[in-house]
Write a structure and sequence with these properties.
It is a single chain. The protein has about 80 residues and is an alpha+beta fold. It is built from three helices and four strands; from the N terminus they run E-H-E-H-E-E-H. The longest helix is centred in the N-terminal third of the chain and has 13 residues. The chain is globular. The two termini are about 20 Å apart.
């Protein structure tokens, strides 16, 4: 099975209003672009907790950070359109 589009992951933590804000933007933009995303609790993965500390949310595209803390619809649309 081959993945044709980018793989997005949203690194979050519980009770994070900025995480909720970023998730709302992802829910608006990604389905329209034919993409989805996985939510990962940064505190549940020690390596991620060590790497990102208190800096959440973080949006990863294909394992690489592409946005931290805040994102708007236009920024996310540009990220989605980027080629690999």
């Amino acid at each position: 099975m081959t993945v044709s589009g980018p793989v997005f992951e949203l690194l979050t933590r519980e009770r994070c209003h900025l995480c909720e804000d970023m998730r709302a933007v992802l829910d608006q933009v990604l389905p329209a672009a034919g993409c989805g995303y996985a939510v990962v609790d940064v505190d549940a993965v020690p390596a991620l907790r060590e790497r990102f500390g208190d800096t959440v949310p973080v949006l990863l595209r294909d394992g690489r950070p592409v946005a931290k803390v805040r994102i708007d619809k236009k920024q996310l649309q540009r990220i989605v359109r980027r080629r690999r």
